[in-house]
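Standup notes
- HV: blocked on the assembly model, inputs below
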Amino acid sequence: MADPMRIRAQAAGDKATVRVLMAHEMETGQRKDSAGKTIPAWFIQDVVASHNGKPVFSAQWGPAVSKNPFLQFSVRGAKAGDKISVTWTDNKGDKRTDEATVS
Amino acid sequence: MTQTRREMLQRSAAVAGMLASLGLLPQLAHANTWNKAAFDAKNMADLMKALGTSAPAESKDVTITGPDIAENGAVVPVGCSTTLAGAKKLMILVEKNPNMLCALFDVTEGVDPNFSTRVKMGQSSDVYAVAVMADNKVLFAKKEIKVTLGGCGG
């Protein structure tokens, strides 16, 4: 199981800024190891974020997103106490969901 | 007698194959929400074909943010946003990467069309923010980011 994400959600006016730091290798499939063999690609493909259980956006990522990806977005109408959850799925089918409360 | 038996076996094999392909296809379509064609695209024309949208036009309503010079190509902070309402998709593209498309965001009403993330860049290149509008119009903004140390190969 992958390491937990770090999610911080802060309300500002009528929206909340959410910053997510995921723990993932994000291997591109372009690099070679010391023996000259290509390291297979391993990266997050899908990201879904929900506000109080309702999906607000989904994202598709390629291997060009950096290692331990950072993502920032703003959720409209979110206020203190609301729940923001983020789920990612990688190309090996591994999944992780984490939740944070808007402060 | 042998012939009919052979025919029958052949037919049943064909039927089984058909059933397998029929049963498999919906499964594949379900597992494959990730748009492989788009992520394999090497240039803007291929990408637009993969997404089924028209040719993009430059617009000042779409913004790309990022540094002028990135020291480390493995971690380049970029953001894409648009001031227009009704954007369906936002994308971040790096022109000279092995595959152009870095990230694609499907936007809904519940979220601002403004995303920031960090991407890898193999070399100095133009970086695009592309917005697909509800009426299938495609708008983009670009910015050149110089990279002192590439972040793709190794």
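- HV (later): unblocked. The longest strand of chain A covers residues 44-51. The domain at 6-101 of chain A is CATH 2.60.40.10 (Immunoglobulin-like).
- Next: hand off to the docking folks.
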